[in-house]
UniProtKB/TrEMBL annotation:
It comes from Python bivittatus. PROSITE patterns: IDH_IMDH. Transmembrane segments: none annotated. This is Isocitrate dehydrogenase [NAD] subunit beta, mitochondrial. Keywords: Tricarboxylic acid cycle. Residues 2-374 form the Isopropylmalate dehydrogenase-like domain. The lineage of its organism: Eukaryota, Metazoa, Chordata, Craniata, Vertebrata.
Length: 384
């Protein structure tokens, strides 16, 4: 910000589960700072697979505590950097507070793991409305809902079961799916093997009419079916925007074959994580795509594709493009249009010239080389 003359003061915090800089105290300080500023710029808070902490990582807990329900990734081709598909311009909107990332899983028997997929009407409607509002504001013409609601009926012996709130859930070794829980009365859990059943409480509050839990084969049909119905209902309120639907596996293929057919895509949590990274690969990889997450009160700017770049730590080879473009987007959000354009134009100019490129883009330049080149391109053009 000093080099570009940006009138922004940063409150810096270091939170990492890789470098042993993570604790409840640090997380609370980060959350307090973000609540005060309302806007944040964050790097990837990577949790390695061998991490032995809680099921919910610090990254997930941060998003939940701030209710950052909408993740937005703008996938756009970079001038001067040729890929198989050029001139791409599409937006991926992901619901990121429920779904498979509920962190509600347990070992019901040795070698048997059960996981809950949470899908609620309230949050499905909220992300659908966000997607259509975004399309309207950005003057985009089409929204595609991506889902997996096409799973056939469950196999014999695996039937739906309707459970009243006064009844207990099936035990951990039960073969019955958990499909729908009315919420007129307190919810009871019969198993103590879940890490923290209290995680269900916010979902019951968010969904007054009930709580939908995913389990077994039919959960995809019911859970994604609810998400799809909510998108269809919201779409009726926006007649000027074209709406269509696509199954997640077909969407992956279509993105590779013909990504130009897409404009705005909206989807549940896990599918968004996959599509974000797939789409990033179409325009240059995880190092070049910016992203942002929103709640009703907060805006957090970050990398669009959540690649850990663990192999690049300490080697000065990471591509800073995504973070620089995210910074520019943050400045635009703060109504600092001049400074936002200054930074984004400088980054794109460096890539277009092509003399300084990091290894992931086919070059041999270091992170420091790229940053220096961006700084050099700030001054001649803008006279800062």
């Amino acid at each position: 910000p000093q080099v570009a003359g940006v009138p922004v003061q940063f409150d810096e915090h270091h939170l990492s589960e890789v470098q042993n800089m993570a604790s409840e105290e640090i997380l609370d300080r980060v959350l307090d700072s973000m609540r005060k500023s309302k806007v944040a710029l964050i790097g990837k808070i990577h949790t390695p697979m061998e991490y032995k902490g809680e099921l919910a990582s610090y990254d997930m807990r941060l998003r939940r505590k701030l209710d950052l329900f909408a993740n937005v990734v703008h996938v756009s081709s970079l001038p001067g950097y040729k890929t198989r598909h050029n001139n791409l311009d599409l937006v991926i909107i992901r619901e990121q507070t429920e779904g498979e990332y509920s962190s509600l899983e347990h070992e019901s028997a040795k070698g048997v793991i059960e996981c809950l997929k949470i899908v609620t009407r309230a949050k499905s409607q909220r992300i659908a409305k966000f997607a259509f509002d975004f399309a309207t504001k950005k003057r985009r013409s089409k929204v595609t809902a991506v889902h997996k609601a096409n799973i056939i009926a469950p196999v014999a012996g695996c039937r739906n079961k309707r459970i009243r709130a006064t009844q207990q859930l099936p035990g951990p070794v039960s073969s019955h799916p958990w499909t729908w829980l009315p919420a007129e009365k307190p919810l009871q859990l019969c198993t103590s093997s879940f890490p923290d059943p209290a995680h269900l409480a916010p979902l019951v509050q968010a969904e007054p009419s009930g709580l939908r839990l995913g389990h077994s084969l039919e959960s995809r049909k019911l859970g994604d079916g609810l998400f799809l119905r909510c998108c269809e209902e919201v779409a009726e309120l926006y007649p000027k925007i074209t709406f269509d639907t696509m199954i997640i596996d077909n969407c992956c293929m279509q993105l590779v074959q013909n990504p130009y057919q897409f404009d705005v895509l909206v989807m549940p949590n896990l599918y968004g994580n996959i599509i974000d990274n797939l789409a990033a690969g179409l325009v240059g990889g995880a190092g070049v795509v910016p992203g942002e997450s929103y709640s009703a009160d907060f805006a957090v700017f970050e990398m669009g594709a959540r690649h850990p770049f663990a192999q690049a730590v300490g080697r000065n080879i990471a591509n800073p493009t995504a973070m620089l473009l995210s910074s520019a987007n943050m400045l635009r959000h703060l109504n600092l249009e001049y400074h936002s354009a200054m930074i984004s134009d400088a980054v794109k100019k460096v890539i277009k010239v092509g003399k300084v490129r990091t290894r992931d883009m086919g070059g041999y330049s270091t992170t420091s080389d790229f940053i220096k080149s961006v700084i050099d391109h700030l001054h001649p053009h803008y006279g800062v």
